[in-house]
Amino acid sequence: MSERIRTFLAVAVLTVAVWVWADLEQTRDGEDLVPVVINGPAGFRIVDVNPKQLLVAFVGPKGELQGLNAAPEEKVCRFNLTEAELKSSPLVLPARDGFRHWTARRISVTEIRDEHGGTFDGRIYANVSRLVTVEKVRVVVQVTGAVAKAATADPHEVTARVAEADLDQLPKSKHFVVAPLDIDVVPESLKVEQEVTLDRRLGGPDGIAATFDPPTVKVSAPLESAVTKKAWGRLPILISAPSEVLNRYRIVFQPEAERWVELEVEGPTPAIERLKPQDVRVQLVLTADDKPNPGSWLPREPVAVGLPPGVKLVRPLPTVNFNLERHNEKPPPP
Fold it and tell me: What is the CATH number of domain 227-326?
């Protein structure tokens, strides 16, 4: 290859490199919704962060912005706090301090608004709670998809770590954790042994956030049968009331109200297979305390009568609006 060609290629490569560099160094601006992340040392939990997200406008080199977009863990408003900084609660943090890690990329924040684009006072608020340990937390196995006789967990007790402030509000009766076992297919042996991840709440679904050690348990569940659903349509709503109520009053239903319901039940497969529509009745139950209510309807939820043990409604029955009128009176205006 001649010296002239080599020189030309070298110049071409250098020119392309300069063009690429110049393109990446061009200043661009952008706007995006970023989460607020507050980190602290072990033993503390940051809660009630407000706002949780910020709408941020920024400017920086095109190449650095591309790198930021490719690193979601960096595209955040982030605070790394020390134990000393966490001792004062509630926390009040300048939002712009959460973008200091962007300066290494030469990216500047030009405007910060709340997540809806509204006005923002420039501060992040949060509460700090010290984590405490709860020993001997009882494991409760909840089986869905089948009927279990007596499911057990190994270990049957675990250790929990929770925020101290949350624990103070939780009654002792709620010191348990759920091990949810969802069974899709019932084996012929009618026995399931499976590793189950514990729910991350102490006290059930409405409990408090927690971590557990160990985080999983081995569940053994002897099964009785699978759970089956069955639907029936257009069962009439019957009236069940004391004779003195029926002798004194007529039952008046809201005009155009449905006088029937669609019923769906679930339970052990053998019980569902034996169940017939004539075994179940839907009743609107009245008592001797029911009285006319002039000017308004009386709302009442019907009940399903005749369901065998272990069989239940998939969803509540719809409310029925009715009223009572004496046999010698016209219907009261609703």
Answer: 2.170.120.30
